[in-house]
Task: structure prediction
Amino acid sequence: MSVVAESPDPPKLDTTVPQTARIWNHLLGGKDNFEVDRAVGDQIIEAMPHLARNARLSRAYLARAVRWLAAEAGLRQFLDIGTGLPTADNTHEVAQAAAPDARIVYVDNDPLVLAHARALLTSSPQGATEYIDADMRNTAAIVKEAKNTIDFDKPVALIMMGILGHIEDDAEAKSIIDGFLQHMPSGSYLAMYDGSDTSPEVTEAVRIWNISANPKYHLRSPERIEALFADLELVEPGVVSVPRWKPDTGATTEEIDQYCAVGRKP
Ligand SMILES: C[S@@+](CC[C@H](N)C(=O)[O-])C[C@H]1O[C@@H](n2cnc3c(N)ncnc32)[C@H](O)[C@@H]1O
Result:
């Protein structure tokens, strides 16, 4: 486990201020959250009753994308930025189930995620996992540290699930992505999802989230999400609502307010 340069405004382990990783954990049905997180989470669910389901569908997309990257695209190295609290089907479990030699580096800046990182650091004997406590904006420092586990001369899957919504400005979000991808060779991938501004309910839910939660979250339109992939080759089916990205047989393909894509660096 390692720590790189300080965040501009790092979340502290403060049980009086609701925090994004813990609210998300509550929405996913987890136990790693406090009363303040549950209160905001429940208020959000009132505004948008299906948000907990959306959280689970987004998590299921994470697993499908990581499985596809390992099993179909042949990736063996994963840099997962905005890991979240450990839950079912963490990136290393999914990747190593498909490819036991997969190497995973997790990055988050929430102190509770750091406290639980040991649960993320189990690994198959053939592979490896590492955890870096850092703000995603510190791309160069993260890459430098990740080089202890990941060989940046070989393709890397950059995983940014539910995190770029914490960056309001599109140009800044794109520069963070580029800050990682510039160190990765052709054949590397970006896989992401984020909340989309595709219904009044989700706009209201995020308004409630942003009254008290730290850090704040910003919705993007599917077009703005697509623009983040400007230099990449989109994998089929392109930018879609998360249930529609290579759905498992028989799974729902309803449209929800979370959009995603996987793109390959040419
Ligand atoms: C909505 S959760 C998503 C967790 C997981 N990726 C998933 O899809 O289930 C967003 C995560 O991003 C982390 N995060 C938010 N801003 C961050 C930043 N500036 N640097 C690093 N991590 C950040 C939060 O602590 C939280 O764990």
The chain has a mean pLDDT of 93. Residues 20-21, 24, 58-59, 62, 82-84, 108-110, 113, 135-136, 161-163, 166, 215 surround S-adenosylmethionine (CB under 6 Å). The two ends are 32 Å apart (CA to CA). DSSP finds ten helices and nine strands in the chain.
